[in-house]
Design goal:
The longest helix has about 50 residues, at about 60-105. The protein has helices at about 1-20, 25-50, 60-105, 110-135, 145-170. It starts with a helix and ends with a helix. It has one domain (about 1-45, about 65-170). By secondary structure, the protein is an all-alpha fold. Keywords: Membrane, Transmembrane, Transmembrane helix. InterPro entries: Phosphotransbutyrylase (IPR016747), VanZ-like (IPR006976). This is Teicoplanin resistance protein VanZ. It comes from Clostridium beijerinckii.
């Protein structure tokens, strides 16, 4: 079991490295796919809501509404792309923190001191990942991404500790 957890942790680190090694075009295409899925779901919801309501818009107002809605939709897509990218960062490091916790706990390493080690490992990996990303065409290295990665790691650490101490330990007593 110990080796499996370590291998999962190393695999996930490799996956993060692989994803950050994609050039800007590929990275943008990946996040655009997610944005399109979200937008399609939103459109379907709006369409079903519109069918349930009887709205009457005059034809003279509709052209102005369409121009405004196009600008708003482009801005929303850009904002949504940003949100998707930042959430992907946080999610990747949340999973990494959970796997690092599992790896250390499988070797009976736990306690308050381990929290610092776990966060250091995740922060160090985030910094090296952003450094690596600075050499990839079309990608940028941002301190804000490191902070988002670290926040994701803290969430993962919190989830692991909550589930371990509140659920697992309580059920064993």
């Amino acid at each position: 079991m110990k080796k499996i957890v370590i291998l999962l942790c190393l695999f996930w680190m490799g996956f993060i490295f692989y994803m950050s090694g994609n050039n800007g075009t590929i990275s943008h295409e990946q996040s655009t796919k997610v944005v399109n899925i979200i937008e399609n779901a939103q459109r379907n919801q709006e369409k079903s809501q519109a069918e349930n309501k009887d709205k009457a818009v005059s034809s003279s107002d509709s052209s102005q509404v369409n121009k405004n809605s196009i600008n708003v939709k482009q801005e929303e897509a850009s904002n949504l792309d940003h949100i998707v990218r930042k959430n992907a960062h946080a999610f990747m490091y949340m999973v990494l923190a959970i796997l690092v916790c599992g790896a250390l706990f499988s070797y009976n390493k736990s306690g308050k001191g381990m929290i610092i080690y776990i966060l250091f490992i995740c922060l160090f990996y985030a910094v090296t990942d952003e450094f690596h990303q600075s050499f990839i065409p079309g990608r940028t290295s941002l301190v804000s991404d490191i902070l988002v990665d670290f926040m994701g790691a803290m969430i993962g650490l919190g989830l692991f500790y909550f589930s371990y101490y509140k659920i697992y330990k309580r059920n064993r007593l």
